[in-house]
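Notes from hallway chat w/ T.B., transcribed later so I don't forget. T.B. wanted the structure written out for a chain they're using in a teaching module, and asked if we could keep both sequence and C-alpha cells in one place. Agreed to drop them here.
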Amino acid sequence: MNSFPSTEMINRLREQYPVGCRIELVCMKDHYSKLKPGDRGSVMFIDSIGTIHMRWDSGSTLGLIIGEDRFRRVVE
C-alpha cells in the first residue's frame, strides 16, 4: 500500500504554500517540540513526501506534517 502523496498533491501543496509564505501553528502532535500554538515561521520548501520544511521565528526548523499538524497561512 502506497501511503505517500501523489505528485499532483505535492504540486498543489507547493502552490498553496510557496517558499517564503508565512505560516502560523495551530496545533502540533510532536510532544517533544518547543513550538506552541501561535508560533509563526516561513516555508523553506516542501519535500517529495509532503513535509513542509519551516524556518520558525523562534529558530526551530521543525517541519509540518499534513494530516498530523494543524496550521494556517497568514498574510503579514
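Follow-up for T.B.: The radius of gyration is 12 Å. Might be a good example for the class.
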